[in-house]
Amino acid sequence: MPDARAGGQPPVPPGIFETWEVVVDLRAIIMGLSFALIWSSAFTSARIIVTQAPPLTVSALRFLIAGLVAVTIARAMGQSWSLTRTQWRTVFIFGICQNAIYLGLNFVAMQTVQASLAAIIASSMPLLVAAIGWVVLRDKIPALGLFGLVIGFGGVGLIMGARIVGDVDLYGIGLCVIGALALAVATLAMRGVAGGGNLMMIVGLQMFVGSAVLAAAALLFEDMTIQWNTELGLAFAYTVIMPGIVATFIWFNLVERIGAVKAATFHFLNPFFGVMIAALLLGESLGVWDVVGVVVITVGILAVQFSKQRA
To answer: Is the pTM of this model over 0.70?
Structure first.
C-alpha cells in the first residue's frame, strides 16, 4: 500500500523515465525532421542556381564560403584544429564523396534534370547502402529488408520508366546515379566512426576538401563567369547556410545521438519533401506514377531501416 503521508503515490519503478526517453526522443525526432526538410530543399535551390551559373564553379565557391563560416564558428566554440586520425578520415572521405562527387555531379545534372527527379534518385541512397552491404560486404539482411530493397528499387523504376518515356536527359540521370553511389560508398566506409567532438570543425574542413576538388574541375571544364542577380543571390545564400552548414551539422549530431541506422530512417522523408518543395516553388509537374513511385520508395526505405533496427 502506498504511504498516505507521502501523497498516496506508489513508488516509480527505477529507469521508467530513461526508458520513455529512449522510446520517444522528441529532440531526435525534431532534428531528423529538420534535416530531411532542409536536405530535400537543397535540390530546388540548386536547380535555381545552375540555370544561371556554371555548376562546378558555383559549387566550389559555395563550399569555400560555407567552410570559412563553419570553421570560424568552430573556433568561436573553442573547437580544435587538431583532429584524430579517424576524424581526418571523415573529413577527406565526406569532402570528396559527398561534396565533390555527389553534390558536384548533382549540380551539373540539374542543368537538365528536374529537381524532383534528382531528389528521388538521391533519396534511394539508403537502399543503395543496404544493397551494396548485402552484395559486396556480405551483410545479413532479414526478409523484411530484402522486401524493402525490392519494392524500393521498384518505386525508382516506376518513376524512371514514366520519365524516360517523356523528354528526359539520360546523361543527367546517369550523373545523379553516380553521385548517389558515391554517397552510399562514403556512408559504408564511415561505419563505426566515432564522434569524438569537434563536429563543427569537421563540417568546415570537409567543405574545404570539396571546394578544392571542384575548383580544380571547374578550371578544366568551365568558364568561371557568374552573372549575379537577386534570385541567384538568395538561392546561393540559402544553399550555403541551410543545406551546406545547418543540415550537415544536424546530421552529425543526430548520428552521434541515436546512431547511424536510426538516423538514416529519416531519409524516407526525402522523396516526399523533395517532390513537394520542387512542385511548390518551381511548379514542376507531377504525374500519377511519380506519386505512386514516391510512396513505394518511402515504404521500401522504411522496411530496410526497420529490418536493420530489429536485427
So the answer is: yes
